[in-house]
Amino acid sequence: MKKRDVVKSNELFNEIIAKGIKINNKYFFIYGMKKDFIKNNYGIAVGKKIGNAVIRNKIKRQIRNIITNNFKLFPNYHNYIIIINKELLKLSYQDMEKQLVDLLNNKGEIYEK
């Protein structure tokens, strides 16, 4: 995931959460909203309750890596916000990737609306 693919605006971040379509499981909340441009943009939110800055940044790096490795699972023309739940700390990287990929694979009918 490149820096140009990041949702930077706080207003856009909040708009996607307020108006976007939500899918979730025990570890992730993903909000998606259609847009006009072909490339996807991503925002990753890790709350302070998750841990200190080192842990939060590690989780964000891992999520960015998972997105880069599985970018074909995200439909084009969307903005995404991925919010992390505290339960994610119990998972290894492989389990984290499996949970996120499973969540994205089971969302087909949600984005068709």
Description:
There is one protein chain. The protein has 113 residues and is an alpha+beta fold. It has a single domain (3-105), classed as Ribosomal Protein S5, domain 2 (2-Layer Sandwich), CATH 3.30.230.10. 35% of the residues lie in helices and 20% in strands. The protein contains three helices and four strands; from the N terminus they run H-E-E-E-H-E-H. It has helices at 10-19, 53-69, 93-105; strands at 21-24, 28-34, 41-45, 78-84. A four-stranded mixed sheet has the order 1-2-4-3, with helices on both faces. Strand 3, helix 2 (53-69) and strand 4 form a beta-alpha-beta unit. The longest helix has 17 residues, at 53-69. It is globular and about 35 Å long. The termini are far apart. Residues 108-113 have low confidence and may be disordered.
SSE inventory with pairings:
Elements (H helix, E strand, L loop, with lengths): L9 H10 L1 E4 L3 E7 L6 E5 L7 H17 L8 E7 L8 H13 L8
Parallel strand pairs: 3-4
Antiparallel strand pairs: 1-2, 2-4
